[in-house]
Specification:
The chain is of the alpha/beta class and about 375 residues long. The chain folds into two domains: about 150 residues, Rossmann fold; about 200 residues, 3-Layer(aba) Sandwich (Rossmann fold), CATH 3.40.50. It is built from 13 helices and twelve strands. The longest helix is centred in the middle third of the chain and has 24 residues.
């Protein structure tokens, strides 16, 4: 590593859950000697500081003097940085969710557009711009280096970042209420189902509030870990698990697949998770989909052309309304109980997708080094 070229890197990712920050962490670990500045607003920089460490400098305005920029899943930021004539390596971990032009950056203005591989035949690209673009650099999934799984610790439940997203550009009451609704509809009923069946829950991981953690501790006094975990702690937690029950975040799904961890998928929290469940599960697998009384799939598909904020606003309101209905809460709990009780021993993930590879972090780091070195 000592002969690795040193150059200046501006890095940014969109604040939707923890997937973008997780991918950024894995790529930066491949660039140990590079000078990194992290760009973003107060919310995202505090999150990145927590997960990436305090040795990186943070800025709220994109500086001009950088050799290269790495942007993950944030088209607006990629365009802003390109305006400053900083060469951009863009990573799109969810190429199958895009439909509106604003979902992707100006393709001709990024040096490399890296799209994470997935089975295109299961979910063809819906963005007209991406379908016409011939310079997509297809990369392997970006996942941690697989650790040997020992098992024996029971069930791990994972909620991820709980889609902490700025609807309409402002962190608002709708998003916070939607998080509470998801916990009421999904997490607490799931815990009750598992307790009733006598299953051991070793950890409940995710961006849970102090109030939610307190409630869960009372429900599960013998649970080893409840609440947010560092990336490395989460990796260790997964290696000890016998079963993972997770919201359908792509990074966690791919991580579970890389260590052959049987996995069940919870109802989706956001737009990308809705499609992730379709992409990564076995055909006809029970992935605990929302009943039509919660989510109108036709309406969701119709709103995709309006962009991510419109889709998430619709989904958030749907969850809030559903959590207020005793009948719908019971319907969702029935779906969860049926999926848990009838779960196949090897889970619902399509393990043939492991053939997509696991070297995405190395591949992106190599492109960043190429661009950064030539622009020093």
């Amino acid at each position: 590593m000592s002969n690795q070229p040193s150059f200046s890197l501006l890095a940014a990712t969109r604040h939707i859950g923890w997937g973008g920050v997780g991918k950024l962490r894995l790529i930066l670990e491949k660039l140990p000697s590079v000078q990194v500045v992290l760009y973003g607003n107060e919310h995202i920089t505090s999150l990145m500081n927590e997960f990436l460490g305090s040795h990186h400098e943070f800025v709220e305005r994109p500086p001009r003097q950088f050799d290269v920029a790495l942007v993950i899943n944030d088209p607006a930021v990629a365009n802003s940085i390109a305006d400053l004539k900083v060469p951009v390596v863009y990573v799109d971990s969810l190429p199958y969710v895009h439909k509106a032009d604003t979902d992707i950056p100006a393709l001709e203005r990024v040096v490399y557009y890296c799209a994470q591989k997935y089975p295109v035949e299961l979910l063809p690209l819906t963005s007209p711009l991406l379908r016409q673009w011939h310079d997509i650099k297809w990369i392997d999934p970006i996942v941690p280096v697989p650790q040997k799984r020992r098992g024996g610790q029971g069930i791990v439940v994972n909620l991820g970042g709980l889609y902490t997203y700025d609807v309409g550009g402002v962190q608002n009451d709708l998003a916070r209420r939607a998080v509470d609704a998801y916990l009421s509809l999904v997490l607490f009923p799931l815990v009750n189902v598992l307790k009733t069946s006598g299953r051991k829950i070793s950890a409940i991981c995710g961006n849970l509030s102090a109030e939610a953690c307190t409630k869960l501790c009372l429900m599960l006094p013998e649970c080893d870990a409840i609440g947010p975990q560092s990336p490395h702690a989460f990796e260790r937690t997964l290696t000890g698990a016998d079963l993972l029950i997770t919201s359908p975040g792509s990074t966690t799904i791919l991580q579970a697949m890389s260590i052959n961890l049987p996995t069940l998928l919870l109802p989706s929290q956001n737009r990308s998770q809705f499609f992730n469940a379709r992409v990564y599960s076995k055909p006809d697998a029970d992935i605990m989909q929302w009943p039509v009384s919660v989510l109108d799939v036709a309406k969701l598909q119709e709103m995709r052309s309006q962009g991510i904020s419109a889709v998430l606003g619709y989904l958030y309101k749907s969850l809030i309304d559903a959590a207020a209905s005793r009948e719908i809460v019971q319907d969702v709990e029935t779906i969860i109980r049926k999926a848990v009780n009838n779960a196949p021993a090897d889970g619902v993930l399509n393990h043939s997708l492991a053939e997509l590879g696991i070297d995405g972090a190395d591949q992106v780091a190599g492109l960043v080094k190429e661009v950064g070195s030539r622009n020093q």
